[in-house]
């Protein structure tokens, strides 16, 4: 077994993302040394893993609690956050104690949000168990929950003390979840690192094998893209050159509106996949990219088994959802688009006709 790879996220409080196989021994050193108590937040579907992590931490002398939360997106609610706060209060968690989030991106978003808000912020470590969590959700300090009005509308920037990406944990992951994670990997390819596309295109389904070298390589490259972007612009304020952290939102304006339209029962990566093709069509219709780059999006995403089209009748509701996107300013919608491969920019306030033409291209 090769040594783990460490990617440093060089923000003001730098931390490492450790990537490899069989990494459980690497977890305790990522926790703050002053912690006496630790709470392991895990979804009900990963009870055995959550308990194994809790027990291993207890063996190191920590007072280790488990907090079991609903599966997937249904954990990202104010009620579930409130439940976690009540467990922390009951167990007497202080500012020097810590939280460990074990699960997919939904669980790690919730665990980070609970860590950001308990006592106005305690330390946390994430152990993502999905491709999407490893390459994206666990890295970069965006934490949050959904509300009835939209996706991730309540949250905070709060960075983990470390992230452990144990690729062996992916063995039990359903193949559709791997596909969903690969959407964010492909996103990194189009916005910043085209080598990811070059690695995937000869045999797109090879990356669905969790033991494959190509999966490890594209996941590590995706983490490097995310680490570099957030190191330049942690708070999405436009710092660090170019459009900053907003670049990571490629495909998400329509993607989040689709998730909201589907009452959060649609895979995040699948929604982002459709959203990227929509954004690519917007860029083509605005004269920024040519049809071949749009076709490259469609071909690769479809070859991975991701959707690239959506219901024709959903437009009005999707438009209403997009108006609550965090990139919107007043009544103006703003989209991350490409000016070319790995060249991101913002398309602000496209007219209705352009928006509807782009939607027609993905809803036929
Ligand atoms: N904070 C960020 O920067 C960021 C980035 C990208 C996505 N996200 C968020 O991440 C969420 C999506 O994350 P996700 O795709 O990981 O979904 P998820 O957390 O809902 O997990 C998907 C499903 O896989 C199951 N699962 C997880 N790990 C497993 C494993 N190893 N074996 C078997 N089953 C397993 C889960 O129980 C769940 O049913 C969305 O809420 C999205 O908004 C956040
Ligand atoms: O980290 C970021 O920044 C991203 O935009 C990454 C996205 O993949 C992720 O889904 C994020 O949660 C979306 O953020 P939001 O601010 O649009 O809610
Ligand atoms: Zn995303």
TrEMBL record:
<dbReference type="GO" id="GO:0046872">
    <property type="term" value="F:metal ion binding"/>
</dbReference>
<dbReference type="GO" id="GO:0005737">
    <property type="term" value="C:cytoplasm"/>
</dbReference>
<keyword id="KW-0028">Amino-acid biosynthesis</keyword>
<dbReference type="InterPro" id="IPR056179">
    <property type="entry name" value="DHQS_C"/>
</dbReference>
<dbReference type="GO" id="GO:0000166">
    <property type="term" value="F:nucleotide binding"/>
</dbReference>
<dbReference type="Pfam" id="PF24621">
    <property type="entry name" value="DHQS_C"/>
</dbReference>
<feature type="binding site">
    <location>
        <position position="151"/>
    </location>
    <ligand>
        <name>NAD(+)</name>
    </ligand>
</feature>
<feature type="binding site">
    <location>
        <begin position="105"/>
        <end position="109"/>
    </location>
    <ligand>
        <name>NAD(+)</name>
    </ligand>
</feature>
<feature type="domain" description="3-dehydroquinate synthase N-terminal">
    <location>
        <begin position="67"/>
        <end position="179"/>
    </location>
</feature>
<dbReference type="GO" id="GO:0003856">
    <property type="term" value="F:3-dehydroquinate synthase activity"/>
</dbReference>
<feature type="binding site">
    <location>
        <position position="268"/>
    </location>
    <ligand>
        <name>Zn(2+)</name>
    </ligand>
</feature>
<dbReference type="Pfam" id="PF01761">
    <property type="entry name" value="DHQ_synthase"/>
</dbReference>
<keyword id="KW-0479">Metal-binding</keyword>
<comment type="similarity">
    <text>Belongs to the sugar phosphate cyclases superfamily. Dehydroquinate synthase family.</text>
</comment>
<feature type="binding site">
    <location>
        <begin position="71"/>
        <end position="76"/>
    </location>
    <ligand>
        <name>NAD(+)</name>
    </ligand>
</feature>
<dbReference type="InterPro" id="IPR030960">
    <property type="entry name" value="DHQS/DOIS_N"/>
</dbReference>
<dbReference type="GO" id="GO:0009423">
    <property type="term" value="P:chorismate biosynthetic process"/>
</dbReference>
<keyword id="KW-0520">NAD</keyword>
<keyword id="KW-0456">Lyase</keyword>
<dbReference type="GO" id="GO:0008652">
    <property type="term" value="P:amino acid biosynthetic process"/>
</dbReference>
<keyword id="KW-0547">Nucleotide-binding</keyword>
<comment type="function">
    <text>Catalyzes the conversion of 3-deoxy-D-arabino-heptulosonate 7-phosphate (DAHP) to dehydroquinate (DHQ).</text>
</comment>
<comment type="pathway">
    <text>Metabolic intermediate biosynthesis; chorismate biosynthesis; chorismate from D-erythrose 4-phosphate and phosphoenolpyruvate: step 2/7.</text>
</comment>
<feature type="domain" description="3-dehydroquinate synthase C-terminal">
    <location>
        <begin position="181"/>
        <end position="328"/>
    </location>
</feature>
<keyword id="KW-0170">Cobalt</keyword>
<feature type="binding site">
    <location>
        <position position="184"/>
    </location>
    <ligand>
        <name>Zn(2+)</name>
    </ligand>
</feature>
<dbReference type="GO" id="GO:0009073">
    <property type="term" value="P:aromatic amino acid family biosynthetic process"/>
</dbReference>
<feature type="binding site">
    <location>
        <begin position="129"/>
        <end position="130"/>
    </location>
    <ligand>
        <name>NAD(+)</name>
    </ligand>
</feature>
<protein>
    <recommendedName>
        <fullName>3-dehydroquinate synthase</fullName>
        <ecNumber>4.2.3.4</ecNumber>
    </recommendedName>
</protein>
<dbReference type="InterPro" id="IPR050071">
    <property type="entry name" value="Dehydroquinate_synthase"/>
</dbReference>
<dbReference type="InterPro" id="IPR030963">
    <property type="entry name" value="DHQ_synth_fam"/>
</dbReference>
<keyword id="KW-0057">Aromatic amino acid biosynthesis</keyword>
<keyword id="KW-0862">Zinc</keyword>
<keyword id="KW-0963">Cytoplasm</keyword>
<dbReference type="InterPro" id="IPR016037">
    <property type="entry name" value="DHQ_synth_AroB"/>
</dbReference>
<feature type="binding site">
    <location>
        <position position="142"/>
    </location>
    <ligand>
        <name>NAD(+)</name>
    </ligand>
</feature>
<feature type="binding site">
    <location>
        <position position="252"/>
    </location>
    <ligand>
        <name>Zn(2+)</name>
    </ligand>
</feature>
